[in-house]
Amino acid sequence: MSSYVIPTPPIVSIPVAGGGAFPVRRIYCIGRNYAAHAIEMGHDPNRESPFFFQKNPDNLDPSGEFPYPPHTSDVHHEVELVVALKSGGTNISVDDALEHVWGYAVALDMTRRDLQGEAKKLGRPWEIGKAFERSAPVAPLMPASGTGHLDHGRIELKVNGEVRQEGDMNQMIWKVPEMISYLSEYFELAAGDIIMSGTPSGVGPVSKGDVMEASIDGLGTLKVVVV
């Protein structure tokens, strides 16, 4: 008999291409990790110390639909590479970091930009703009054993067939091994952790009825309808 005083919340997971599911523990998101995006957001693109914010595991949504959220009139798309860890630890070296990666996926970091902007002006956390329900549409996870470790290749987002965002993963200011190593200095990483690795320039608003198509070389396309 369980000693829990309320029903146990479900385990959050991402579908895996070919079958199965990857259980999710935490989500770390790096900010302004492509130089052109840093510039369009009004920041210096030079290589400063990376910074991270978090989404909640249950923000992940593989359904292919994105419900337009409340209390906003300016929701932006951000296409990102997801990195899923099979193991972790502290003070992981850059050279050893990729040994902890299980796989990769295409995802969107949907953002209530107006609420994020208000939080920035007031020096407050970003969660109200970033960590709302179903704010991380995600494609099935693909094992690194099949894709190899991704350090270059086109990353793109179309809205209603029009290219809005485009770049190459080699344009990341902080590469995947560096992100893993840096995070492990401040947190104890573990199996089930997810890293969302930043977005190229071209972020912009979506409206109900829009069709977003996010794609990354080697990982295919994630199609999401705004409802």
UniProtKB/TrEMBL annotation:
It comes from the Bacteria. SUPFAM superfamilies: FAH (SSF56529). Gene3D superfamilies: Fumarylacetoacetase-like, C-terminal domain. The keyword Nucleotide-binding does not apply. The keyword Chloroplast does not apply. It holds the Pfam family FAA_hydrolase. Residues 27-227 form the Fumarylacetoacetase-like C-terminal domain. Keywords: Hydrolase, Metal-binding, Pyruvate. GO terms for molecular function: acetylpyruvate hydrolase activity; metal ion binding. This is Fumarylpyruvate hydrolase. It comes from Hoeflea marina.
